[in-house]
Every structure is written in structure tokens, then in C-alpha cells.
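== Item description ==
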Amino acid sequence: MPLNSFGAILNFAENVEKEDMAFYQTAATQAEATIHLKFASLAIEGKKHIAQIQRTRRENVTEMILEPIHDFERGSYQMHIGDAAEMNAEALMTTAISLEERAIRYYGDAARKMRALPEVARALKTLAKKRKRRRERLEPA
């Protein structure tokens, strides 16, 4: 399905964040103590990311009608996550890393597609940077 508008790109970004946040919330309840706090903090950060996406949408709503987007599909950013409640610690970490990598790729690609709206592109780049830092925190110590 195409992501052919400002609204579609931000809606998909919000869905990604909600999906990831739900995974991290469940993972935090299932995870052993050593990684519980990582997942709990990632879930909290997810709420902040959703608020940032919603704020970006509100602040740029007048421009959203004017800019069509071409050649951008959601298919390569969709993934089957699985049930965090049924995963062991290793599977939780592997899935978490995959989620972060998907988000980094999506936000980077979306920012390039939104160059005509610099404020939106900047917000998407900021989210990509935040997800890169999260990805780094998931690396084994």
C-alpha cells in the first residue's frame, strides 16, 4: 500500500511507534531483570515519539494537502513481530533490534521523501536519530 501523502507517512509512523511500544510494554513484563528496565524505558520513550509525531502533524496540517509523495510503499517497513509474551530473552532482544532498525530505515527514507516540507523532514530525522541511540543501547554490554 502506498504512502503517498504527508498524512499517510505520519499515520504509518504513529502506527509503527504504537506497535513497537506495545511490544516493549509486553516484553518488559516478561523479561528477566537484566533487560526489564531497557524495555520499560523504550516503552516510555515510545509514548514521547507518538506525541512528537502527533505534534508534527498538527503543526504542519496546512502543508499536508499540497505535497504528494511518489514511489514510497509501506510493505518494506511492515514486519511480523510475534508475541513478546512467548519469547525468551534472546528472542526479545533480537526482535527489539529488528524493530529499531526498521524504524531507523523508515524515518530516514520518509525524511528524504518529505524534503519539500523541511520541518517535517527534520522531525523525521530526529526520530531516526533517537531510534539509532535506542538501537545502540540494545547492544550487549
Summary: The two ends are 39 Å apart (CA to CA). Helices lie at 6-30, 33-59, 61-64, 89-113, 118-137.
